[in-house]
Amino acid sequence: MVERIEFVKGPAGFMLANGDPSGFYNVVTKKPGGRTKGEVSISTGSFDFYRATADLDGKLSANGKLLYRVNVMGMMKGSHRPYDFNNRYTIVPVLKYLLDEKTSVTLEYTHQFSEVNVIGSNYVFSKRKYADLPRHFTTGESGLPSTIMNDRSLFLIFEHKINTDWKFTAQTAYFNYQQEGASLWPSGFDNNNDSLLQRGMSNWDVLGVSKIGQLFITGAAITGKVSHKILSGLDMSHKEYYHDWNQGGALGTADFNIYAPVYGTTILPAFDRSKSLRQRGVRYYNGYQAFYMQDELGFFKNRLRLTLAGRYTTLTTGDVYSGDFKSSRFTPRTGLSFSVDK
């Protein structure tokens, strides 16, 4: 579903991100291209790896105003470790409607599904030395509950070309990530025998919901002998994350010999999921509202460029451990560049 990945490096990233000043990356997904085409691929490989994909692009209306693109993927994969697997599928339908030559509306839905063996079976523990155990060692086994992940997102994008120099974009997104499963983590080694490990298992349930909105305008203008490249907009986000890992217990009734593992444990700790994850999980939240504006001024036929910009952000965040936090900040940006030749 990915067309390309863009990287914005350095302080320029602050204009469209509420994060690290080193920059950010942007994943550009595949959109309708307006011409009928299709592609199907099938792959296979080691450890029972099988993967099939399809990419379909075309028009749904005779006048060519309603376009579509559909990407689907299905995969089954084993591992060099016994009992490990990763079964996945992805469905990404996209609709784009051209209101006229200047205006379009795009609706995109993504559903990613993954089912894997109990999380943590790839962890290796030894009291003797690093790389003490073989690469195929695992504390997992058959019969353990798998972990299931569903990642859904919905995008709505409105684009309008005001004229040849100016463009307005409004976009909103809704993300919903759900995970239900378990994680392996040992209670410790036997005090008298460093071969014996007491395995433990806890639940590992997650709910993440994000709502994002952006409005921005880009354009170019000339005042006298000075050129301008202007970017301005609003950036809003609200994210909630619920996590329940507080239920667990010993896996099996006996210690696990890491040098002579015997599999076949059927006694599992019981997890109570009678309450919703919002009721039993630990809640984290993060939200912000920001306004930004930037003008790149060009002098001497654009050989010398002066960038003046600023972003005003109000951030609200919190969790049960550190409480609530709210703060507003103005972040300025200035830049100067000169082109010696073409």
What does this entry look like structurally?
- The two termini are 37 Å apart.
- This protein has one helix at residues 277-280, and strands at residues 2-9, 23-29, 37-45, 49-59, 66-77, 86-98, 103-116, 147-161, 167-180, 182-184, 188-190, 193-198, 200-203, 205-223, 226-244, 248-250, 256-257, 282-299, 304-319, 323-338.
- The protein is globular, with a radius of gyration of 26 Å.
- The strands form four sheets. Strands 3-4-5-6-7-8-9-14-15-18-19-20 form a twelve-stranded antiparallel beta sheet.
- A hairpin with a 4-residue loop joins strand 18 (282-299) and strand 19 (304-319).
- With 342 residues, the protein is mostly beta strands.
- Helix content is 1%, strand content 62%.
Name its key features.
mainly beta, 342 residues
Mean pLDDT: 92
- How much is the radius of gyration in Å? 26 Å
Q: What structural category characterises the helix and strand content?
A: mainly beta
**Order of SSEs:** EEEEEEEEEEEEEEEEEHEEE
Largest sheet, described in full? 12 strands, antiparallel
Which shape, going by the Cα principal axes?
Answer: globular
| Beta strands, count | 20
Gap from first CA to last CA: 37 Å
What is the helix tally?
1
Give the strand order of the largest sheet, numbering strands 1, 2, ... along the chain: 3-4-5-6-7-8-9-14-15-18-19-20
The unreliable regions are: none
Helical content (DSSP H or I, runs of 4+): under 10%
What percent of residues are in strands? over 45%
